[in-house]
Amino acid sequence: MAESSKIYKKRIIKSGQDFHFVDERGQKYLDGISNMWCNVWGFNENNITNAMIDQIKKIPHSTIFGLSNLKSMELSRYFLKLTKGMDKIFYTDNGSSAIESALKIATQYWSNQGKETKTRFLSVKSSYHGDTMGAMSVGYVDLYFKKYKHILFPTVTVPKPIGSRLDVSNREIDTDRVIEKTEKIIEENSDKAIALIMESGAQIAGGVNIYPAGYQKRVAELCRKYNVLFILDEIATGFGRLGNMIEYIAQDSIPDIACFGKAITGGYFPLAITTASRKVYEEFEGEWIDQKHLYHGHTFSGHPVGCTAVIENIKMYRKNKLISKIRKNSNLLVKRLTEFNQFPIVSNIRGKGLLAAFDLVKNGNPIKSINGAPISMFIIKESLRRGVYLRSLGSTIVIIPPLAIDKDSLEIILNTQFEIVAEIYKSIK
Ligand SMILES: Cc1ncc(COP(=O)(O)O)c(C=O)c1O
């Protein structure tokens, strides 16, 4: 939360224009991190904002406790059509809560069957699923969570895959060994395993690890083989980030439960979705006396303004053929990334869709600071000075532009990143 004001002056944002933040002095900053990975269309008025305004005039808030509302119903039908193998929807208001709901649904799936011996989640090393207690427990990233480690619930960790890289062909990546180890761990823990949870398509916050082809499908198959529920987190990777609308469909790996957030409203409203398959939902059916239902709900679940945003957002994806536009821009991004190879401090360049990253290293060690400041702060400061807003994940440099970005703005982001890396190289070589 607290980023040192001694290192750079925090800008106070007053408005937005195109893909720019505009601060109180009227300075513009191109959004190079898609507003914490949720910015799709930028900041101008559009069909989504207008539909939200219309909706807020009709009813600004309407609970779904004991009632329903038209927009939450419309969205559930509409959203489930996008997915595959999902039958029911659960609304929350942020990604971490969508994960907590998924964890509770998975736990209760077993306890409704009297299987209370199912007590452990399996998670993939270096995953990130949010900042609430359950999400931290299943998505441990040491840097962020070490102060809470002693109170997080225990999980069983399976190894992370060796991520795909632009300079290494997928055939050279040894996924077999990771899958063998994963299978051994799943088998050993299948009696007590509630579910295996992982990010869909790529890990992002834990260091940007883009899965090699076939890995996710094989994990899904293992979960089925050992009767362990499979939960996929599409919060950061779904809705186009990796060039696919629903990443798990592209990965041919249908989960039992899937979580969506961030880009689903275009970033315009805090809303997240947890979906569940028919198989999962059936364990919650019964008479009230059976007490099988999910005692979990949030004040803002199914908010009609948020649901309206998702509906209009999906319509805009279709109307603007956004997924094919993302794929085109991805070609440009991947091509230009190779230019960073000229810096000896740049290693492990990877990219897919509109997600790209590389590591800054010197003598095999991550470059953590520059001129006495953490590298991430240096990047924020230097990018803002150049009229772009960029962040890094420690010594991992990330490029995560808004999904509907135009080619020229993408070039500006890349040029700025290039200049900053050149400056880092100059000062530490
Ligand atoms: C993969 C993943 N899951 C869950 C979350 C948590 O979402 P939120 O920040 O909306 O709670 C994030 C946030 O970055 C994420 O990247």
Automatic annotation (TrEMBL):
InterPro entries reported for this sequence: Aminotrans_3, Aminotrans_3_PPA_site, PyrdxlP-dep_Trfase, PyrdxlP-dep_Trfase_major, PyrdxlP-dep_Trfase_small
Record EC number: 2.6.1.-
Family annotation (PROSITE patterns): AA_TRANSFER_CLASS_3 (PS00600)
GO BP of this protein: biotin biosynthetic process
Enzyme class: transferase
Keyword annotations of the record: Aminotransferase, Pyridoxal phosphate, Transferase
MF-aspect GO terms: adenosylmethionine-8-amino-7-oxononanoate transaminase activity; pyridoxal phosphate binding
Pfam families, per the entry: Aminotran_3
Record-linked PANTHER family: ADENOSYLMETHIONINE-8-AMINO-7-OXONONANOATE AMINOTRANSFERASE (PTHR42684:SF3)
Family: Belongs to the class-III pyridoxal-phosphate-dependent aminotransferase family.
Name listed for the protein in its UniProt record: L-Lysine-8-amino-7-oxononanoate aminotransferase
